[in-house]
Design brief:
alpha/beta, about 55% helix, globular
């Protein structure tokens, strides 16, 4: 008898949510992970467990908020349900109901509502922060530490880079700078160091090594050979020379030219050969590790005459490939050593800046918590935690870094040992983890997919070793996607090459939405058109309109989406027409393609939210407001004032500005003040700037911007010209001004410097985008869904 997908999913979820067992759940996308976590919490509480002794750690704030909201909604609904409906709901979650169970379920809402601090549902970083605030002395931290803001962290890292450059007087640092200067910019160097700091403990151990030991370690890892020199003498092997002579004499005209070039190089002296090594290399290799086809030198006729020629030249290619490998290994080792030489002072400077200001970043939170929990001298911290924690629930464990796993392992180390595992101990203690290795975001915040299987074995061994029940439960029924989408995914990963690194078992998905329609369209690749050569001697009087393949794809996508909305395509699953809010476009990265899609959709008139992350200082409305701030700091800056006057804030047209500015005797601001009464638009612009100039020395940056946007009408004018999409950047700028005021003196100049240095990247919440097309990276869209998804 076949089991329906829904029954299959219900049985698996009830097994995993059983509060009497510990479980590790491999849950595919859309298979109900949040519902499973919620059911697990509910069943634990209905079994009589104290809600304050349950800790749930999620991966993101959004996931924690979603779980909290869903829990409150379920408990609130139970209060109002009748006995039959409530019993059916509880039975669906695997509970055997009776009158006492119904009463307990209705009382859970008030019980959770009265819980001091609420349910313990949060991110791993929030948990670490709360733990360190509870035990700051044991963690060797200031009791009043703060979590550093991204903008402050970026500024501190830039200060550390500049300090390193200012102090690069030693031969080691100068050599490192010479090695890297032609390969990376200062900003890219900062990004590389920031990447190294993702695993700060390993970086510290590497930087603590003496220079000789570090070089030796790098050479061993990369396979470098410091005794290696270009084996020029080998190139004079008689067989290779004789082969080149044969090709010159008996080869095709093209092959004869190649043979002549080989002999020219072989006839050079040792020093000249070394200087022209690239010429010899090109005869046999296309690039490092890439070999040329030998058919261009030894054709079939010549091969029949001299069968050994191909082997002679192939042996030379083998020698050159080995040479390339060693040279690349030496280069990688040298570059890595140079990077670490410069990374050490940058990392130290950044750490000292945080120490002086009493701030920690997210990596510090994880590292300090891990050190606190594994330090033998702080064993009583674990004792205190152990007394208040009976059940640990872990979400999205495929993206859990090794350091985060160590924290979870330390928290649960005593769950199934000692008194916690004895039969006379009445406390039931469980560990529950849910995730899917296929969905791992490799290297994100130090995530390592190998830890997924490693810690599944560790936790399972602990539970089983104590004689308790351990379950490995797969969730492979999708409540999100229709069968055609799932069938395509299964077909793609049926190939060995595609599945490698993603899953070690056959990937199979089952659709809960049986009988519901779905469709997958595969569009052909869009080629980049060939460039048309301009006619010689002709003046280029017209634009050739050369459009890239990316732009053609963006235009085609915008046109197709526009037709779907114009023609009123029915969205059968929702019983209404398809709308812009039903569309989610996913790209690999926020690059030219993403910007081209947004631009094409706007040209086509399709409402779009824009890219899910934006650099605040790049937004037109923010640029106008920053130009206003520059003007208020230095009214004699004619360029900034001209930008303000022609912006929506000033309201002047270009012609009005030219009438004012051309032929003026002095500064633009002086001319505007003297001639403001001549025209209403000049008078309005002068009044706007003058009133703010009178306030700039007496109010904070936030208050100054608020006055410019509110009482003086700046927001209305910006939105009137730039459209409603300017509202979010304006609000984010005000929020940034408030954030700056919390940790810095109220200085307009300091605020501008801080904002421009940090870049101020803003993350847009996709769920709050409204009825517009959403465009995100695949990474950023994790956990979201839409009726129409475009990859």
């Amino acid at each position: 008898m076949s089991v329906s997908p829904r029954d299959r999913a219900r049985a698996a979820q009830q097994q995993a949510s059983d509060p009497a067992v510990s479980a590790f759940v491999a849950a595919s996308a859309g298979s109900g992970k949040t519902k499973l976590l919620t059911d697990r919490l509910l069943r634990l509480m209905l079994q009589g467990e104290d809600p304050s002794r349950i800790q749930c750690l999620t991966f993101t704030k959004a996931a924690a908020a979603e779980m909290s909201v869903r829990l409150q909604r379920t408990l609130g609904g139970w209060v109002t349900l009748g006995d039959a409906a409530l019993a059916a709901d509880l039975a669906d979650r695997g509970l055997v109901t009776n009158s006492q169970m119904l009463a307990d379920a209705r009382g859970l809402f008030a019980r959770v509502l009265d819980l001091p601090g609420g349910m313990r549902i949060g991110t791993i970083h929030a948990f670490c922060e709360s733990l360190l605030r509870r035990f700051p002395i044991e963690a060797r931290l200031s009791p009043h530490f703060r979590v550093i803001e991204e903008a402050d962290a970026a500024a501190a890292q830039q200060d550390a880079r500049e300090e390193m450059l200012a102090g690069a007087h030693t031969p080691e640092r100068r050599d490192a700078l010479r090695t890297l200067a032609g390969l990376v910019s200062l900003q890219q160097l900062g990004n590389l160091v920031q990447g190294l700091e993702g695993d700060r403990e390993r970086l510290r151990r590497v930087l603590d090594l003496p220079e000789a030991a570090l070089r030796l370690a790098l050479d061993r890892v990369t396979g470098a050979d410091r005794t290696f020199q270009l084996p020029i003498a080998w190139a004079a092997e008689p067989a290779v020379r004789e082969g080149a002579e044969t090709v010159l004499t008996h080869g095709s005209p093209e092959a004869a030219k190649a043979g002549g070039r080989m002999l020219d190089w072989l006839n050079l002296g040792a020093d000249d050969r070394r200087e022209h090594w690239a010429m010899w290399h090109r005869e046999f290799m296309l690039g490092p590790g890439a070999r040329r086809g030998l058919g261009r030198v030894v054709n079939k006729k010549l091969s029949d005459r001299r069968p050994d020629l191909v082997g002679i030249f192939a042996a030379e290619q083998d020698r050159l490939a080995a040479t390339d490998d060693i040279q690349r290994a030496n280069e990688v080792s040298d570059l890595t050593f140079a990077l670490l030489t410069l990374a050490a002072p940058i990392a130290r400077g950044y750490a000292e800046a945080k120490l002086r200001s009493g701030q920690l970043d997210f990596t510090d939170l994880i590292g300090a918590t891990q050190a606190l929990l594994v330090d033998p001298g702080a064993a009583w911290v674990l004792y205190k935690l152990d007394g208040g924690l009976d059940h640990l629930l872990l979400d999205e464990v495929q993206d859990t870094a090794p350091a985060q796993w160590a924290i979870a392992g330390a928290l649960t180390a005593d769950f199934h040992t000692g008194a916690g595992a004895r039969e006379h101990d009445t406390r039931m203690r469980t560990v529950f983890a849910v995730g899917d290795r296929k969905q791992s975001i490799f290297s994100f915040q130090g995530a390592d997919p190998r830890s997924f299987e490693q810690w599944r074995a560790i936790l399972g061994g602990r539970v089983s070793g104590a004689g308790h029940t351990w379950r490995d439960v797969p969730l492979d029924v999708s409540f999100r996607s229709a069968q055609p989408v799932l069938s395509l995914v299964d077909a793609v990963f049926a190939g060995v090459d595609a599945a490698a690194g993603v899953s070690e078992v056959t990937i199979t998905h089952y659709a809960d939405r049986v009988g519901q329609a779905g469709r997958v369209e595969l569009w052909p690749l869009v080629p980049t058109p060939e460039k048309q050569a301009p006619e010689p001697w002709r003046v280029p009087e017209r634009n050739l309109r050369r459009v890239s393949g990316l732009q053609r794809l963006a235009d085609a996508l915008a046109e197709w989406l526009g037709r779907q909305f114009d023609n009123g395509v029915m969205l059968e699953s929702r019983g209404r027409l398809l709308g812009p809010g039903d569309v989610l476009i996913l790209v690999r990265r926020r690059d030219d393609l993403a910007r081209a899609i947004v631009r094409a959709l706007k040209v086509r008139g399709v409402p779009v939210a824009g890219i899910d992350r934006l650099v605040l200082t790049d937004q037109p409305a923010v640029a106008d407001l920053l130009a206003l701030c520059d003007t208020l700091l230095l009214p004699s800056d004619d360029l900034s004032l001209a930008c303000v006057l022609t912006s929506p804030l000033g309201g002047l047209t270009d012609n009005a500005l030219m009438d004012l500015a051309l032929g003026r005797p002095g500064r633009l601001w002086d001319t505007l003040r003297d001639r403001a009464a001549e025209r209403p638009d000049w008078a309005a612009a002068e009044r706007f700037v003058r009133l703010l100039l009178a306030r700039v020395d007496f109010v904070s940056p936030h208050m100054l911007l608020a006055e410019a946007l509110g009482p003086l009408g700046g927001r209305a004018r910006l939105l009137g010209r730039l459209g409603p999409e300017a509202a979010e950047p304006i609000d984010e700028l005000l929020s940034a001004a408030l954030d700056h005021a919390q940790t810095h003196p109220a200085s307009l100049q300091g605020f501008l410097h801080w904002l421009r240095r940090s870049g101020a990247e803003v993350k847009r919440e996709a769920e709050a985008a409204g009825q517009v097309v959403r465009l995100m990276t695949v990474h950023g869209a994790k956990g979201l869904q839409a009726p129409l998804v475009i990859l």
